[in-house]
Amino acid sequence: MLRKLLWILLISFPLFAILCASFSEENPTDRRVLVLLDDFAIKSSHSLYFKSLESRGFDLDFKLAGDPKLALQRYGQYLYDAAILFCPTVERFGGSIHVASLLDFVDSGHDLIIAADASGSELIRDIAVECGVDFDEDPAAFVIDHTSYAVSETEGDHTLIASDDLIQSEVILGSKKIEAPVLFKGIGHSINPANNLVLKVLSASPAAYSANPNSKLSSPPTLTGSAISLVSVVQARNNARVLISGSLSMFSNWFFRSGVQKAGSTTKYEKCGNEQFLTELSKWVFHERGHLKAVNVRHHKVGEVDEPSIYRIKDDLDYSVEVYEWSGTSWEPYVADDLQVQFYMMSPYVLKTLSTDHKGRYYTSFKVPDVYGVFQFKVEYQRLGYTSLSLSKQIPVRPFRHNEYERFIPAAYPYYGASFSMVMFDIGFRE
């Protein structure tokens, strides 16, 4: 019996260790990442990118995309907290992984990186479509640009794009400016302008278009100009993040180490911006930046410290909350001037911008409106690049009791005077 128990413990311990290493709100970067590859050669050809992740504490598990033992979860628990799909040609995943399971993976709050290519399979395209991105329908299409290409020995190859049209967001790309253009060779995609969950982080120039470079154009290209996105990101409503690139090559060691000179420019950079761009972007995708948490939500009457179970109309109250941002290694105070609280019942009766002490604490005071019912303190905070905050606390508000009204209402003094004058007049008349 003892031997059987020890055997069960030995078998279950590795699984227990895997499940314990999952994503934690208190330590967002302590996570396991599944990396699916078309070929193990990609592990070597893209080693600089993988090493940058491992150096920041990520545990990468490399698997072939067709491995029959693949699984995202076991016994109802996810084994990984993020996935990287560097398998643009895969026609079918192995094991229990498929399009629906990957979408469930994202719907459960996990992050995803997808690298497609001009030879991208329908499987990868289907996943991208579900994330709000449409790749060019032509499987042989490349993004071509005759004005913003990278100068090289092969002057006729204008599919090697040198783009510097980056999203202007420090939270997504970091505070250090990316000086050198980013090299890109692959397929372009479009996003729906009405979809505010998808953002273009690297765009093509107005002169770019998507077509097969080995054949003459028989009809106008479907993707043209700045509408072509080279790299996009998605932040879902559950704060899961997805990176979609039309090029696997841009993650490679060769691109990371390449110098670049943009056509029409006399400036030649010894190193292109790919390494800085993709490293900083991965920090955002894996929640090392732009990840907020709110703690210590408090409210009470002015002059008190305990949270009441009910308020009375016209009470003066204090409200406060602490907001912090994950810096990659620790939680730092988040400082902003646009955080607001609503005192809400069907519609906001009070809307106040919160003041901050620049140490993470936000606070305000206001008077409970002269309306009784069930109210909510609501904080709905959405800002580009940051995880959204949605806080609510329900509290009832009662009217005055019969013995809490003022004995004499100042606004009624004229009526009181009129009543007394009529009484005095009546007394005088009788006399």
TrEMBL record:
Signal peptide region: 1-20
Organism of this sequence: Sesamum angolense
Annotated InterPro entries: DDOST_48_kDa_subunit, OST48_MD, OST48_N
Tagged with keyword Transmembrane: yes
Biological pathway: Protein modification; protein glycosylation
Stated family: Belongs to the DDOST 48 kDa subunit family.
Subunit structure, interactors included: Component of the oligosaccharyltransferase (OST) complex.
Annotated keywords: Endoplasmic reticulum, Membrane, Signal, Transmembrane, Transmembrane helix
CC terms in the record's Gene Ontology section: oligosaccharyltransferase complex
Membrane topology: Single-pass type I membrane protein
Record GO biological process: protein N-linked glycosylation via asparagine
Name of the molecule in the record: Dolichyl-diphosphooligosaccharide--protein glycosyltransferase 48 kDa subunit
Domain OST48 N-terminal: 32-285
OST48 middle domain span: 299-424
